[in-house]
TrEMBL record:
InterPro entries: Gallate_Doxase_N, Xdiol_dOase_suB. Keywords: Dioxygenase, Oxidoreductase. Coiled coil: none annotated. Its EC number is 1.13.11.8. NCBIfam families: PRK13364.1, PRK13365.1, PRK13367.1. This is Protocatechuate 4,5-dioxygenase beta chain. Signal peptide: none annotated. It is an enzyme of class 1 (oxidoreductase). GO terms for molecular function: ferrous iron binding; protocatechuate 4,5-dioxygenase activity. It comes from Pigmentiphaga litoralis. Gene3D superfamilies: LigB-like. It comes from the Bacteria. Residues 7-270 form the Extradiol ring-cleavage dioxygenase class III enzyme subunit B domain.
Amino acid sequence: MARIIGAIGTSHVPTIGVAYDKGKQTDPDWAPLFEGYKPVAAWLAEKQADVLVFFYNDHCTTFFFDVYPTFALGVADRFPVADEGAGLRNLPAIKGHVDFQAHIAESLVNDEFDLTVFQDKPLDHGCASPLPLLWPHDPDWPGAVVPIAINVLQYPLPTARRCYRLGQAVRRAIESYPEDLKVVVVGTGGLSHQIHGERTGFNNTEWDMEFLRLLEEDPEQLTKMTHADYVRLGGAESVEQIMWLAMRGAIEGPIRKLHQNYYLATTTAMTVVLYESAGSADIAETRAASEVVS
């Protein structure tokens, strides 16, 4: 059957995609970020992951506020990469896995999640900004993507606990699929940032580190927080962190952090973290090793 082999948390800042497309990987301002993704890309290549399940949000590219779903799942052979105003990106259309996507959709509805299902719609930087840093794409992507969009723009938003439970339901859906697929779940957005209003440029590194600690060790504490809590601690746009909770819900139980890179050079704390499931005996050793992770 399909199984989850790991999880990734990643920022989806649109300028990451712009810098990537302009070949700025070795630019002094960008190199620390791009270098931080290389261990994650190497791990994905080593594990030969078949599918990435992306929890992301659409930035009014495919959906607009007249009809903006709380949860939406894409089912298609291919998804175009959205032109968000800078022209079409030199990336192949993102591959889907229709049978697997349809199975997850049916399973989630049967698990009492009322989904919107979309086909052939473009995916914006919420998914497409970090994707080429994780997977090679010449001439094509090595696997498929299951895009699951979460509303973090138009109130009322789903609660942190609801997103965590969505991740748990996605895990049940994945593990009930009969094909032998290696799946990695990806939570995107954040961490602390605010790009409008009186607190434009706000960041909170202390909170970012505490969020990452709780995400690993005690995610239940994060599910008890309100949207106002997230906004107060991390800025208005840091409410995107509830998408990381969907990822964490999908990889239940003890986990071990294999890699973390935190880079604060713009208005957003750009972060990538890689996790695997871990038995309780591994946790102490893993935490000791993580002390030296940047």
